[in-house]
Amino acid sequence: MREGAASSVQGGGEVSLVEVFVSAQGEGPEVGRTTVFVRFGGCDLRCRWCDSPGTWRVSPGFRVEQAPGSEDFEEHANPANLSWLLDQIDGLAPTPSTWVSLTGGEPLLQPAAVEVLARGLADRGRRVYLETHGLHKEALERCVDFVDLVSMDWKLASDVQPGPDMEWPRGLDFHAAHAAFLDVARRGAGAVYVKLVLTTSTQVDEFDAMLDCLASVSRDVPLVLQPVTPVRGVASVPEPGKLLQWLARAEARLSDVRLIPQTHPIYGVL
């Protein structure tokens, strides 16, 4: 978040959620850090390996954990008032340095809510962590100045399809769309990293095209290669030798590449 970017929340507003809870970050370079997760409802992509399909559609209600680590949840009806939500987050975040993750689903399908929430969190000195599939550049432009870290998934076209009743532009170039999004993120947010899920179906040509496109924006943006987690119908993961080959291939083009699996299934969070 750029110094001086925060401003007061005006007019409240509402957001559709799935849940709000406290856990340890389970993936990426901040893995293991205590995080308040604010999970938005609704997503416009269907990834074969998605570990949270319950977030694909907006639900009638959502739940909020009552105290950090309590696993005691209170049910509420959607949509949530954003001023009320900010107070709930304050009560759950144990320290000012605790990350607040805006995740989903896809948060940027509700751009006005993300903007108001990110501004409000910035006003309260909270660290804002935006987890997104990295395709809605215009929505990011509304809130990027109030985001400390953008976690951007780089989707390979062979792994995803539009959600029901969602129409992507004909012939959408995922690589070009991701590159445009990344350029906004790295210029406006405090920091950004890219995450790519590796499966047994990952293709060399798509992988290399992703690397070339990412390098054309910046060779220095961290890339996290994440082996797919064998849950929810995913039967197999890439062999260790293959994962190390992908790592070496990426390191030949980029300056900061890390191979990091998901850890949150270990402590029961999916």
Give the tags.
270 residues, TIM Barrel, 24% strand, ten-stranded mixed beta sheet
Topology:
Elements: E1 14-15, E2 17-24, E3 34-40, E4 45-47, E5 61-65, E6 73-77, E7 80-81, H1 82-92, E8 99-103, H2 111-123, E9 127-132, H3 137-143, E10 149-153, E11 160-162, H4 174-188, E12 192-198, H5 204-217, E13 223-227, H6 240-251, E14 257-259
Helix pairs in contact: 1-2, 2-3, 3-4, 4-5
Describe the overall structure.
The chain contains 6 helices and 14 strands. With 270 residues, it is an alpha/beta fold. The protein has a domain of 181 residues: Alpha-Beta Barrel (TIM Barrel). Helix 2 runs parallel beside helix 3 and helix 4 packs parallel to helix 5. The protein is globular. The N terminus is likely disordered.
Specify the structural class. Answer: alpha/beta
Provide the succession of SSEs.
EEEEEEEHEHEHEEHEHEHE
Distance between the termini: 28 Å
Low-confidence stretches: 1-11
